[in-house]
Amino acid sequence: MMRAWTLPMLLVSCGSVVATGLVSRGSSGAAAALLLVFVLLAGVNSPLVFPRPISAPEARRRSAVDGRPVVFWRPGCTYCLRLRIRLGRSARRLHWVDIWRDPAGAVAVRAANDGNETVPTVVVAGRPHVNPDPVWVREQLSSSE
């Protein structure tokens, strides 16, 4: 769990140090703007941007019931962030598994990717798809309804 917050905490810490240096030089406006940029970057790279993750077994169970895809992801992954942003509000209808929080999810991703933890890995009808096009994922979601 702590590993998911390492990058956001590092970004906020670095931003604070740089902003403190700017304030000591008398540039409080620039310090506030720079700190805001670092906080926004930390927010985008945090787990808060993604829907609440569930465990891999629970995601499989829910997917079997409703037919919706399962997305295996991890915080700090730019491709996962791209998928999340491009899906928009429909992303909340998918089942999201954070492989850093769920060891079973990490095992499932490694099994699908020749031992690598390549994310996002989207499982549709039991078949894994690595870093799929967000438009394709949206189509799979609408066809599952």
TrEMBL record:
Gene3D superfamilies: Glutaredoxin. SUPFAM superfamilies: Thioredoxin-like. The keyword Membrane applies. Residues 70-127 form the Glutaredoxin domain. InterPro entries: Glutaredoxin (IPR002109), Thioredoxin-like_sf (IPR036249). It comes from the Bacteria. Pfam families: Glutaredoxin. Keywords: Membrane, Transmembrane, Transmembrane helix. Signal peptide: none annotated. The chain crosses the membrane at residues 29-50. The keyword S-adenosyl-L-methionine does not apply. This is Glutaredoxin domain-containing protein.
